[in-house]
Amino acid sequence: MRGYLALALSLCALTATAAPLTRSEHAIIMTLADAAGVPRSIADRLQIEESGDPVTGAWGDPTKAGTAAPHCLGLYQLNPEFLAWFLDRFYPHPAQAFDWANPLDNAVVALGYLAWLHARFGTWERALWYFNCGRVTDVPESTREYARRIVEWNKED
C-alpha cells in the first residue's frame, strides 16, 4: 500500500489542478482506492456524490465547497473540523503539506478514512452512513439514499 501511495503522491505536483478532475488524476485516485481497499466504483461514485456536477457529469471540482455542508471541502468533501485527526491517521506526509484543493491529497485522506470506517462498521453502506452524517444509528433517510446510490452503483459494474 505504501508503494502505491508514494507513487501516486509523487505525481501530485504534476497533476493537481483547480479545474474538474483530469483523466490522469482519476487514474491515480483509482490506484489510491486500490491501495486503500476501497472498490473503484465506490471511490468514483462517492466523488461524484460529493463534488460532481449533475448537469455536466464532470468528475468533480476539487475546489468545491459543500452545498449541504458548506464547511466541507475538496473532492470528497472532508470536514475541516477533523483535519488534525484525518491527517494524523491517513496522510503519509507532514500535515503542512496537505492541500484541500489538491484532489490527490483529498483522495488519500478520504479513501483511507472510508476504508477505516468499513473495517470499523463492517459494510460499505454503514461506512458511507458514517462518512455522510457521522453516525450509524438513527440515520436520516437522505443519508440512507446517498449510501444506496453509491453501493448500488457499485453493483452495476
Number of strands: 0
- Report the average pLDDT across residues: 82
**Which runs of at least 5 residues are low in confidence (pLDDT < 50)?**
1-18
- Which sheet architecture does the biggest sheet show? none
Which sequence of SSEs, written as H and E, runs from N to C? HHHHHHHH
Return the domain count. Answer: 1
CA radius of gyration is 14 Å
Helical amount among residues, as a percent range? 55-70%
Structure in words:
This protein is mainly α. The protein has a single domain (2-61, 72-155), classed as Lysozyme (Orthogonal Bundle), CATH 1.10.530.10. It is built from 8 helices and no strands. The chain has helices at residues 2-10, 12-15, 23-36, 40-51, 83-90, 103-121, 124-133, 141-155. Helix 1 (2-10) packs antiparallel against helix 3 (23-36). It starts with a helix and ends with a helix. Mean pLDDT is 82; it is low at 1-18.
Tags for this entry?
157 residues, Lysozyme, disordered N terminus, mainly alpha
Write the layout of secondary structure elements.
Blueprint: H1 2-10, H2 12-15, H3 23-36, H4 40-51, H5 83-90, H6 103-121, H7 124-133, H8 141-155
Helix pairs in contact: 1-3, 3-6, 4-8, 5-6, 6-7, 7-8
Please give a quick description of this structure.
It is built from eight helices and no strands. The chain has 157 residues and is mostly helical. It has a single domain, classed as Lysozyme (Orthogonal Bundle), CATH 1.10.530.10.
